[in-house]
Amino acid sequence: MTDNVVREFAMRCPVPLPPGERVVLGHGSGGKLSAQLIRDLFVPVLGDATSELARLGDAAVVEVRGLRLAFSTDSFVVTPKFFPGSNIGELAVNGTVNDLAMMGARPLFLSAALILEEGLEMEMLGAVVASMADAAERAGVAIVAGDTKVVEKGSADGLFVTTAGIGLVPDGIEVGPERARPGDRVIVTSPVGSHGVAVMSRRQEISFSGDLASDSAPLTELVDAMLSAGDVRCLRDATRGGLASVLNELAEASGVAMVVDEAVVPVLPPVRAACEMLGLDPLYVANEGVAVAIVAPEDAERVLEAARSREQGAHAALIGAVEEGPPRVAAKMGLGVTRPLILLAGDQLPRIC
Amino acid sequence: MKYLDEYRDDGIARALLDDIARAVTRPWTLMEVCGGQTHTLIRQGIDQLLPAGLELVHGPGCPVCVTPLALIDEAIAIAKRPEEAIVCSFGDMLRVPGSSEDLFMARAVGGDVRVVYSPLDALEVARRNPDRTVVFFAVGFETTAPANAMAVRQAKQLGIENFALLVAHVLVPPAILAILVSPGNRVQGFLAPGHVCAIQGWTEYEPIARDHRVPIVVTGFEPLDLLEGIRMLVTQLEEGRHEVENQYVRAVVREGNRPALDVVAEVFEPCDRAWRGIGMIPGSGLRLREAYRSHDAEVRFPRVGGVPASESEICIAGEVLVGRAKPHDCPAFGTLCTPESPLGAPMVSSEGACAAYFLAGRRREEVSA
To answer: Which of B143, B135, B96 is closest to B116 using CA atoms?
Structure first.
């Protein structure tokens, strides 16, 4: 596909790219390959080391005439489109709402762009859009702009949804991935792994069932409650790459180490059972309604209580602490040994036996 | 969680570690055969909690690791003919390096490679795509053979002609024998793989224990299973016994699983097989019987005979797989060879010893210091 036009633009790209290399699925996994792509191509070409882009928050925070606006975008390509507990439409709204909330912002407006594959059943499209409307109402945001494209059969997988959103960061709220300090505590707001396992359970190739449901939910109320209870330094939506990857990103951004106690990380029993069967580590499985909060030590108990007072945080848990750097994440295991939670290269691969 | 938590109890683990420390009076070298066992041992740090002189070496029980390079190249070559073929595989296999690329890369250039969780799912793919041959990469030990045999038998019964297996099946007992007779072998006792024995039973291990005077304990995969298996093995060694014992009583009986064995025997027959990194081991593989040969991918897609298979010159996977070396003995470990750019299969698989060491944070400089 390196025709002359591509070559011409490639030569203008300020980043030297290895010829012949191709995009693989791991580049979208939220693991090490994703991080490399962002660090080596997107940030240097589209921004620079000091830009808001390089801060790598869940959303950018930009100041306009004295107001701090949070701004974010996210694309949704999940298959199947409907799975236990949620669907691509609800996910697309909650995903962007949560990205904004993770910067301490109150989400206000969303846009939605749909890429539809020729032949998609109108009934499915209707169901997805209705679900987007419900999710927007629940999260208290208005969808105020949109776009539709239709591509030839085979050029997309049913439908893809991209949302973008704007929110307002209230005065006095300072949340950012670089704010974690040694001594801070790590809180996770819900059991981890439920979304990823629920989606896998509905892929056509896999046939186990059980009480598995996606955890997709807007986290705005929960975040509000936590922010008013104490000094929340960082918030992160533990989506792709799961809890372990998100902790790595925060450790890297803040230049600190983090240690979590594996035994107290909440995982629902059916999720744990599915992970055991497939050889997956739930700490690396994607979530859609789980936030990680790094909280000042003196406020940790109060923030935890505030989280537990809300439906989305009823099973929140204090899972670890921030320590002096260098940036790395480790899990304490039963017999007193610790294992590092490294950033994986790509997605976890289900094992053979 | 039932059947998990009770085999991960820290208090009991400590008591078993104390028992082992009391039982050991001199150095012993034990091998855990299965890569799943290796991962539990390394992840929990059990190898570091054992008394000095009691050494665990890691065995060849990682099916992905021992699948010959030529067969991986063959799978890649078939995958790159998407107009005729769909390659279905367990996820583990996709990142294993072939001579010049892996199945992920084949997919990135248009190959049709699908991850399935069961060969019966691949059979379903075949039923839905009658105009293409669906090739299931049948990798694994005795554990996965029954389901693969079942899939082929069903394909034949249902007349699904476009379903084929690329068979890379291997068997544990011939590999244990090969390790015992290999020059410089140090292994004095084996933790046999519990899941393989759940299918196969342990009658095949009895002559090995007797003839080679080596104790073998059929062992499970949870921390307490492994600690108990080690204690049973050490006790036998200290008492000068060499028997086959069963630690994994909740899953394994001596005669194995009869219906599973029957379907395997109907569909497959033993054959010689080359193990990646180790070499040819007589009678250590399975191939489809004559009656099922039309479902053999190697018959349907005769080797293209293109680039000859070539291994990395640095990788010491073969030494690691027979317990002669530890992953961090390799000069490439953690530097040139990592899970994202593996030189050898043991760095890829969730059952590979090198991946176990890497994921547990073991690094060359730390261990040599």
So the answer is: B135
Spatial distance between the Cα atoms of B106 and B257, rounded to a whole number of angstroms:
38
Please give the model's pTM, rounded to 2 decimal places.
Answer: 0.82
Compute the distance between CA of residue B281 and CA of residue B302 in angstroms, rounded to an integer: 23
pLDDT digits (tens, 9 = 90+) for B282-337: 999 999 999 999 999 999 998 755 555 677 888 999 889 888 899 999 999 988 89
pLDDT of residue B80: 93
For A185-340, CATH number out of 3.50.50.60, 3.30.540.10, 3.40.50.2020, 3.90.650.10 equals 3.90.650.10
Nearest to B115 among A205, A279, A334 (CB): A205
**CATH hierarchy code of domain A58-173:** 3.30.1330.10
Instruction: Report the pLDDT value the prediction gives residue A326, as an integer from 0 to 100.
Output: 93
Question: Cβ B360–A26 below 8 Å, yes or no?
Answer: no
* Tokens 């921390």, residue located: B223
Residues of B with CB below 8 A from A32's CB? 340
Nearest CA in chain B to A279: B350
Fold agreement (A58-173, A185-340): no
Instruction: Give me the pLDDT at residue B309, please.
Output: 65
Q: Residue A25's pLDDT is what?
A: 81
pLDDT given for residue B108 in this prediction: 87
Contact call for residues B164 and B295 (beta carbons, < 8 A): yes
Sheet architecture: strand order including B216-219: B54-61, B28-34, B189-193, B216-219, B244-246
- Minimal Cβ distance to B340: which of A22, A33, A276: A33
Mean residue pLDDT of chain A comes to: 89
Helix (H), strand (E) at residue A129:
helix A122-139
- The residues spanned by each domain of chain A are 58-173, 185-340
Can you tell me the distance from the alpha carbon of A60 to that of A72, in angstroms, rounded to the nearest whole number? Answer: 6
- To the question of domain B65-171+256-300 being in CATH 3.90.470.10, the answer is no
* Helix, strand or coil, per DSSP, at residue B187: coil
Asked whether the predicted pLDDT for residue A208 surpasses 70, the reply is: no
Indicate whether B368 pLDDT > 50.
no
For the segment B17-39, the average pLDDT, to the nearest whole number, is: 95
Inter-chain touch A345–B8, beta carbons under 8 Å: no
How large is the ipTM? 0.71
Contact B139, A349 (CB under 8 A): no
B104 touches A: beta carbon within 8 Å: yes
Across the interface, whether the CB atoms of B63 and A342 are under 8 A apart is answered no
At residue B173, does pLDDT exceed 90? Answer: yes
